[in-house]
Amino acid sequence: MTRAAAVLIVLVSILGSARAEPAAPPVAIADLVRQMTPVTVTTEDPVYKRSKSYVGYPLAAVLRAAWPDVDRWAEEGAELVLTAVDGYAPSMDLARALNHNGIVAFREADRPENDPWEPFAKGRSMLTPDPYYLVWTGIAADDPHFRWPYKLATVSVTSFDARYGGAAPPARANPQVQRGFRVFVQNCMPCHSVNLIGGNTGPELNVPKNITEYWSTRHIAAFIAAPESYRLRSKMPSFATLPEADRTAAVAYLSAMKTRKSCGEGKPC
Ligand code: HEC
User: Fold this and answer.
1) Same domain (yes/no): 26, 157
2) Which of 191, 234, 254 for a ligand 1 pocket mutation test, highest count of atoms within 8 Å of Cβ?
3) Are residues 55 and 136 in the same domain?
4) Mutate which of 127, 192, 219, 255 to test ligand 1's pocket (most atoms within 8 Å of Cβ)?
5) Domain membership flag for residue 58
6) 6 part of a folded domain
7) Ligand 1, from 209, 234, 236: best to mutate by most atoms within 8 Å of Cβ?
8) 52 forms bridges with which residues in the sheet?
9) Could you tell me where the beta strands, DSSP code E, fall in 140-224?
């Protein structure tokens, strides 16, 4: 080995071990499950709103196949990002994902392999969960700590700060704005981005123009509660069941973000 190569190896291993934040780029689920043995589960399904049985792979096994360090990252408080083919990208606590019974389903147990999913209505279109659907057993469908994404394609790991820090409000922001940030991450970020951070099923809401710079906060609050009262066929679900204080806080957060715009990795717009 040349001296330069030896120095390079030492450098790479120092840099590698110094990386404090867990950060694993997206891995395709299809590539992880090839050798795995499927299991069958029955659950109260929040999408079909009845009991359903699925064949799939245990989520914990899928994540451990993806990354040997995943249990350590979980102890460090990492965040699991679940990205669907349409850009919907919710996240949840990685430790919680590893320690509960999640199944990455690839078909319904009582359907043939060449017709694996029952279609369901979403707005005016009919969808199926293809290619993968993350379901849970023993978890209430409305438990906000768990995600049930369908059309799931990839998994990735990041820290909460690495994923959402660039969309955090200014540190001196008032408690309502801080609360609104948490509400927004939980309920809105799977579809919307702020400073280009979040999903892209819905529009970006801060750059280059903050939504409160062209919609009044009153209309935003009313839209969130009842999108169809503004736009027939709106693709946004109603958040009427979210407590009003949370909706107001989410709007306060959006409004506060007009003083903190960035177009990716802290770059100004
Ligand atoms: C399932 C995806 C989804 C979720 C979750 C979601 N939205 Fe939306 N939202 C959309 C889509 C798609 C649009 C685009 C317009 C439409 O279809 O009405 C939209 C539009 C909007 C608009 C209007 C902006 C515009 O110019 O169209 C606002 C404001 C908004 N959403 C805020 C929120 C807030 C706040 C939350 C969380 C409480 C939220 N959304 C959650 C999908 C979503």
Assistant:
1) yes
2) 191
3) yes
4) 192
5) yes
6) no
7) 236
8) 43
9) 152-159, 193-194, 197-198
In Å, how far are 49, 122, 144, 146, 241 from 125, measured between CA atoms? 18, 5, 26, 25, 23
Atom in ligand 1 nearest the alpha carbon of residue 250 = 35
Q: Which residues, at least 6 apart from 157, have a Cβ–Cβ distance to it below 8 Å?
A: 22, 23, 24, 67, 70, 73, 78, 79, 80, 81, 94
Is this prediction's pTM over 0.90? no
Annotate 34-76 with DSSP letters as a single string: TTPPPEEEEEEETTTTEEEEEEEEEHHHHHHHH-TTHHHHHHT
pLDDT in tens, 168-213: 999 899 999 999 999 999 999 999 999 999 999 999 999 999 999 9
Task: Quote the ligand 1 centre to 80 CA distance (angstroms).
Answer: 23
- Where a domain ends, among 131, 162, 193? 162
Confirm if 163 and 79 have CB atoms less than 8 A apart.
yes
pLDDT at 13 over 60: no
DSSP conformational letter for 225: H
Which residues form the domain of 45?
21-162
For residue 72 the two structure tokens come to 């350590």
Q: Is residue 80 part of a domain?
A: yes
Ligand 1 atom at shortest distance from the alpha carbon of 211 = 29
pLDDT-derived band at 22, boundaries 50, 70, 90: confident
Residue list, ligand 1 pocket, CB within 6 Å: 187-188, 190-192, 201-203, 211, 220, 223-224, 227, 231, 234-237, 239, 250
144 in the same domain as 25: yes
The residues, ordered by sequence, that sit 6+ positions from 113 with a Cβ below 8 Å of its Cβ are 107
